[in-house]
Design brief:
Ribosomal Protein S5, domain 2, 2 domains, 5-stranded parallel beta sheet, 20 helices, about 35% helix, binds adenosine-5'-diphosphate, binds zinc ion, alpha/beta, binds magnesium ion
């Protein structure tokens, strides 16, 4: 007797239907699996056998063949435990109801017959309708994310026996329903705000420009000057996450098994701050079973790399392509997974190894050579993608003690939204959505410079020793400043401000 049960798997963050087929045939009691090359399958067989027995059912004394189709999709993970067990129980006659075919099943079994959460449930849940099914049966801990697929029935279960009873109609389980609109619009709120920051007007302005045009930025200053504090607050002035963006972020977290129990859907833009000892796989994604890295967890949000010169060279090198493409493709022997990675990069560094070069409170102990060496660690391809350099000096005590009087995040965000709207109009129908993403051709088309601007730029290039690569960065940033100010054309004042954000070009010569 052959029984087919629906399940699903994810490649990258996309879901694919998988059909679990179980065949019981005469022969020695044996349990073989086809189409599941994963090494974990041996353990899976043991879990399924124990879970079935410990739930009070007899394990078939037949030859059991399990086939997972299609064969060409690489399937990994433990999510097939539940559908395989359900198919075996159905083949044995323990489940005898057409209801079986209304659902998609995903879940790991524990030896005692319990059902545990697995990763990647949300992408599959969003495909359930397309698979022609009515709902999905998952572990209780996975149910909230599955319920983001509003039109399907999400059945939360904690034991294999419950699934059998539910399918037989002897146990009623009410589908979990979420009001996504309400959840999304009523509960989101950042716990931090721009008005927490005293002084630092130049840094705040630079972050506003960065947010407005999607520019990557580096903050340079001594320890304790507020770099981390500033970086953390960038997400609070970016335009609010839209619902489709939020679902996309949540999918990535689902695939990474990082969904927080209290947060069904990501309500706010992510802020990720990996430590400088992170590996390239941790940062961009990878591993034997590919998982999204920090750059994908930062999708639609901010990636903060504190102490940039301390990161390993190959790790920073691995960032370059994703920064270019806004996504990352990971190739493993049998499969290729692509994860989105459209994030803003905020880097921070001390001005020198001891941290106090140029500080008014403490003397720097570093030699000129040491300082040069330190700063040169970050030169090269990555710096080419950073449009704004900002000095963050330590504040004098009396300024820190003064009550804050700055604008709050909401006020700043409104200006940024306006500047973003102008860019959306400008780039309608084009690949890039922000000034930072402009190609050379687009710079020519959208950023004509008058005589004054050109003279200013030439002077900066010569007198300040700015590099050629700094040239187009400055124009893009000037375009963003003009957008913030509602100016149709770039003027000299905007170019002058943009030039100020290239301090590292100057000191690195
Ligand atoms: N401009 C500021 N306004 C308010 N508090 C500040 C400011 N700068 C620094 N601080 C305080 O100092 C602490 C250290 O700042 P932090 O952002 O960690 O510095 P850094 O990352 O540059 O080492 C912050 O947690 C904050 O309490
Ligand atoms: Mg810090
Ligand atoms: Zn120093």
């Amino acid at each position: 007797m052959i029984v087919r049960v629906a399940s699903g798997t994810v490649v990258g963050i996309d879901a694919y239907p998988v059909e679990v087929e179980v065949d019981l045939s005469a022969g020695l009691p044996q349990f073989s699996t086809v189409g599941l090359p994963d090494v974990a399958i041996r353990e899976s067989r043991e879990r399924i056998r124990s879970a079935v027995k410990n739930s009070g059912y007899k394990f078939p004394r037949h030859h059991v063949t399990v086939n997972l189709a299609p064969a060409d999709i690489k399937k990994e993970g433990t999510a097939f435990d539940l559908p395989i067990a359900v198919a075996i129980l159905a083949a044995e006659g323990h489940i005898d109801s057409p209801t079986l075919h209304d659902y998609v099943f995903m879940g790991e079994l524990s030896l005692d017959g319990g059902i545990k959460e697995v990763r990647g449930v949300l992408p599959v849940a969003l495909q359930v309708e397309r698979m022609g099914k009515k709902g999905i049966i998952v572990a209780t801990a996975n149910a909230p994310e599955a319920a983001l697929a509003e039109s399907i029935d999400v059945i939360a279960v904690s034991r294999l026996s419950e699934v059998v009873e539910f399918l037989a109609g002897r146990l009623i389980i009410t589908p979990l329903k979420l009001d996504l609109q309400e959840l999304f619009h009523d509960t989101r709120r950042y716990l931090i705000d721009f008005d927490d920051i005293r002084g630092q007007e130049q840094a705040k302005r630079a972050l506003e420009v960065a947010a407005a045009g999607g520019h990557n930025i580096i903050l340079i200053g001594p320890p304790g000057s507020g770099k981390t504090m500033l970086a953390q607050r960038l997400v609070t002035i970016l335009p609010e996450l839209s619902l489709p963006e939020a679902i996309e972020c949540t999918k990535i977290f689902s695939v990474a098994s990082l969904l927080n129990k209290n947060e069904t859907v990501l309500l706010n833009r992510p802020f990720r701050a990996p430590h400088h000892t992170i590996s390239d796989a941790g940062l961009v994604g990878g591993g034997k079973i590919p998982k999204p890295g920090e750059i994908s967890l930062a999708h639609h949000g901010v990636l903060f790399l504190d102490e940039l010169p301390e990161f390993r060279k190959n790790v920073l090198e691995a960032l370059r392509q994703p920064l270019e493409d806004a996504k990352v493709t990971i190739t493993r022997a049998a499969m290729t997974a692509t994860y989105p990675a459209d994030f803003m990069l905020v880097a921070a560094m001390n001005p020198c190894p001891c941290g106090y070069y140029g500080d008014r409170r403490r003397a720097c102990r570093c030699s000129t050579t040491q300082i040069r060496q330190y700063q040169s660690r970050i030169s090269g391809p990555l710096m080419d993608r950073i449009d704004l350099h900002v000095d963050v000096p330590s504040l004098p005590y009396r300024e820190l003690a003064r009550p804050g009087s700055g604008e709050n995040s909401q006020t700043i965000r409104a200006r940024i939204q306006q500047a973003r709207n102008r860019q959306a109009e400008r780039f309608a129908g084009q690949v890039t959505g922000t000034n930072a993403g402009m190609s050379d051709r687009q710079i020519k088309e959208f950023c004509p410079l008058d005589e004054d601007c050109r003279r200013l730029l030439e002077m900066a290039m010569e007198k300040l020793g700015l590099s050629v690569r700094a040239y187009s960065r400055i124009i893009k940033v000037a375009r963003t400043i003009a957008d913030l100010e509602g100016e149709a054309a770039i003027g000299a004042s905007q170019v002058a401000e943009a030039i100020q954000y290239r301090t590292l070009d100057r000191s690195m010569g």
